[in-house]
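Quick question, first post here. What does this chain look like in 3D?
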Amino acid sequence: MNPEKRRAFFEQLKANNPKPTTELEYNTPFELLIAVLLSAQATDVSVNKGTRKLFKVANTPQALLNLGEEGVRPFIQHIGLFNSKGKHIQETCRLLIEKHGGEVPQTREELEALPGVGRKTTNVILNTAFGQPTIAVDTHIFRVSNRTGLAPGKDVLAAEKQLLKRVPKEYLIDAHHWLILHGRYTCKARNPDCAQCIVEPFCGFKQKTSKGNVPGDI
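> Answer (accepted):
Ran it through. Tokens below.
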């Protein structure tokens, strides 16, 4: 995809959704951090189902630490890997209190030092909570980047680096959300809705059809 098409691609996404955001429900950077920790290999719907109730009871590091793993478990046991996630939440809350005054840090190094927080989670927090131009490449963004020709990469890190180079600067802050939503609802793995795709004119996918059926996953 050439630079002109890339710009038109994001112009169209912006026109369709001027103020995109995450589908995870949160009110503070800390709530977002906990929600993203819980979202690994889980749907936003399942995470929101748990955090709506959890955050009414405890929505600060100290409050969650006071609940302990046993107290947190009933709110998250419907979410995959809830045992390990519960431990990570407790360890993260302890470190936030001990090292960061109970606040979520705003640097990559400090965030990635927290239990259960990797590069993708860090990128989400930096972008969504603190407005930094990062892109958290999940399975949806990886698929859209490669399928459309926007930013091909052999793995998520390669795709992230290509996106940071290729996305026009004025669209970098919101690109993360646009691409996730596009991959989640339109450019789906097995049945992409090519016929209804707003960026289809700029897409380099060679197997698209009027019905949007493609062989296998991408």
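The CA atoms of residues 89 and 214 lie 40 Å apart.
DSSP finds ten helices and no strands in the chain.
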